[in-house]
Amino acid sequence: GITGAGKTNLLNAITWCLYGKEKHINEKSAGYLIVNNLTIKELKENEKCNVGVQIQIRDEEGRKAIIGRGREFKKLGDGRIMEINDIGGKSSDGSTIMMFVWVEKDFVEVPDPEIRINRMIPESIEEYFFFDGERLNDYFLENSGKKILEAVFKISQVGLISNALKHSEDKRRELLKEEKNLSPNLRNIRDILNQKYTKKDENESI
């Protein structure tokens, strides 16, 4: 799209709603509050304002899901802006987050929205779902192939199979080692049994 059309702002709104972070922010804007400057200027002393983002997606089972995150701000007497945390809320950053999933004939609230979101779209591979033009060149760097491969592994859960295979191989080696340690004992036991059977046969033949 056209530069300056607000694509990065849209991406930041999405990632903030999902993870509580503006993950596509540039260095110039880093450290600023999520509430825009115009709203801050218009606030009166001790007045509050709310910032909220709501998105609709499909969950793992293809059901409609609504995710919403909000944050309240207050302008203090000295002009500073204070973030007001949602005490007892479900988010890790103090914002208010809610998630609803359509079940049968109604929306049902998800008890642990951040856990559910990270299961659907893991934050560690967010950049492979949402990226802007300014970051596109990163995908052509020398190590980008490795990053993409790791992301594919995470999405497809191939890592689980690899770990299972490694565990099986480690177990096989452990059993082989135990077998080698047991082999002399097994031979001794076999020799003792053979001796007993030989004596038994000799006694029976007398």
Largest sheet: 5 strands, antiparallel
What structural category arises from helix and sheet content? Answer: alpha+beta
Point out poorly predicted stretches.
Answer: 1-5
Global morphology: elongated
Mean pLDDT: 76
Distance between the termini: 102 Å
> What proportion strand?
15-25%
**Number of distinct beta strands:** 5
Protein name: Rad50/SbcC-type AAA domain-containing protein
InterPro entries: P-loop_NTPase, Rad50/SbcC_AAA
Domain Rad50/SbcC-type AAA: 3-196
GO molecular function: ATP hydrolysis activity
What does the model show?
One of its GO terms (biological process) is double-strand break repair. This protein is an alpha+beta fold and about 210 residues long. The protein has a domain at about 5-120. It has helices spanning about 5-20, 35-40, 115-120, 145-155, 160-205; strands at about 50-60, 65-75, 80-85, 95-105, 105-110. Strands 1, 2, 3, 4 and 5 form a 5-stranded antiparallel beta sheet that branches. The longest helix is centred in the last third of the chain and has 48 residues, at about 160-205. The chain is elongated. The chain starts with 6 loop residues before the first helix and ends with a helix.
Pick out its properties:
single chain, 206 residues, alpha+beta, five-stranded antiparallel β-sheet, 5 helices, 5 strands, disordered N terminus, Rad50/SbcC_AAA, ATP hydrolysis activity, P-loop_NTPase, Rad50/SbcC-type AAA domain-containing protein
Short description:
By secondary structure, the protein is of the alpha+beta class. The protein has a domain at 7-121. The protein has helices spanning 7-19, 37-42, 113-120, 144-156, 158-205, and strands at residues 48-58, 64-75, 81-84, 96-103, 106-109.
